[in-house]
Amino acid sequence: MRQITIIGTGYVGIVSGAGISDFGNKVVCVDILEDKIQSLKNGNIPIYEPGLDDLVERNVKANRLYFSTNISESIQKSDIVFIAVGTPQAKDGHADLSAVKAASKTIGENLNGYKIICTKSTVPIGTGDNIIKWIKRSMKNKFEFDYVSNPEFLREGAAVKDFLWPDRVVIGANSDRAFKLMKDVYRPLYINETPMIHTNVTTAEMIKYASNSFLALKISYINEVANLCDKVGADIHQVTKGMGKDGRISPKFLHPGPGFGGSCFPKDLMAFLTFSKEKKIELKTIEAAISTNIQQKIRMTGKMQTLVGGSFENKKIAVLGLAFKSNTDDVRESPAITMIKTILDNGGSVNAFDPIANKTMGKIFPTIDYFTTWENACRDADAAAIMTEWNEFRGMDLLLLKSLLNSPTVLDTRNILNPKSLKELNFNYDNVGRSIIE
Ligand code: NAD
């Protein structure tokens, strides 16, 4: 049984830790945050992720998964150390690598024999060389180690499934010894013939950024097409259906909406762009995807403003859905933030509701009113804006919605309500790219 340390217990650290222990390894997940580790030790998972509770509980019971703040001891006892700390966006657009640097230093200080040091955090291309340097600089004695880049592709909201049944595992390892050991960590996947892509470190780092950027590009592209549909009387849903049937295009990530958010796409695109500028290579498509996305979020606030008569002044808007997408409590860069901020900045007020993310949004907007049901959030509001594609909004009782609102006004930024039903009920209504539906 391989002994593994995962440094950082965020979305990636907890899911990877639980998943890798489920593959039959002994894993200790460590963090500098004592409260977080204590909570995990008590069986409380600090994030919402479907299926994660069960996965963690099963592996803790099987004595394969542990949580600790004793990072040094854990590293010393491990064969493989994963870095899964955050790499948020710095003010200048670069990825902030201070947590990665701190983790590398701790690893160097505690190296006591051959180990694999593996980065799961998303780090700019070339960071592997710096991590090796930082580790070597803090080593007390000379020990051999191999460095591996093993980027993570899980999606929040489907992270457990994505980790246990990935499309591929990318292992950037410059030595065969390291690649073999890494393959062993993912043994059940390897046996199931999940593609294991062996590259050098730099290529693995590039695969992660190129993949995220491509997905974000697809979203920005379809949002632009949806905006054009609005103007010319085409239906974006039929457009995406017609496009997606083409195997070269695929229907995935062709959903128009209020713009992408989350902890990855916005910062990763910016880091990729900043990096490419340094290398004097233009990534104009990425630049366009970023600005289109910013505009899309603003565009949604414009649609809402138009629906309420041109001004938010003294208007109370029910913002339904706060998370950047469904099945997560993550609100980082969520389009709902732009919506709420614009309403408040322009003299309006907000009734907010999310099935899971009220608490996380409460840290950003502590003074708005939060509700535990969409019905209560809509009561006596002047309009509702659906910002997240939660299933419970899909099945909304539209008659009830109409009776709760001061005036029947709805912006559906996820295109999940039935336009015909809304029309029949005389809703003042808008969506993204489906204005033709009568
Ligand atoms: P997160 O912010 O949720 O969690 C990071 C954790 O690292 C925190 O608990 C923090 O306390 C801990 N940490 C920071 N410095 C530390 C240190 N020196 N020692 C120990 N622990 C430390 O981050 P996340 O969303 O899990 O993302 C982690 C990385 O994975 C990022 O680079 C991200 O881009 C990448 N990634 C994220 C996702 C995602 O969906 N969230 C998907 C793929 C890749």
Describe this structure in words.
The N and C termini lie far apart (62 Å). Helices cover 46% and strands 14% of the residues. The chain has 19 helices and 14 strands. Helix 1 crosses helix 3, helix 5 packs across helix 6 and helix 10 crosses helix 12. The strands form 2 sheets. Strands 3-2-1-4-5-6-7-8 form an 8-stranded mixed beta sheet, sandwiched between helices. A 6-stranded parallel beta sheet has the order 11-10-9-12-13-14. By secondary structure, it is α/β, with parallel strands linked by helices. The structure holds nicotinamide-adenine-dinucleotide.
Topology:
Elements lengths: L2 E5 L3 H12 L3 E5 L3 H8 L10 H10 L3 E4 L2 H7 L2 E4 L14 H12 L5 E5 L7 H12 L6 E5 L9 H6 L4 E5 L2 H10 L1 H5 L4 E4 L1 H32 L3 H9 L20 H14 L5 H24 L8 E5 L14 H11 L3 E5 L4 H7 L4 E3 L2 H5 L4 E4 L4 H4 L3 H7 L4 E4 L6 H6 L3 E3 L8
Helix pairs in contact: 1-3, 5-6, 10-12, 10-13, 12-13, 13-14
Bound molecules: nicotinamide-adenine-dinucleotide.
Nicotinamide-adenine-dinucleotide binds next to helix 1 and helix 5.
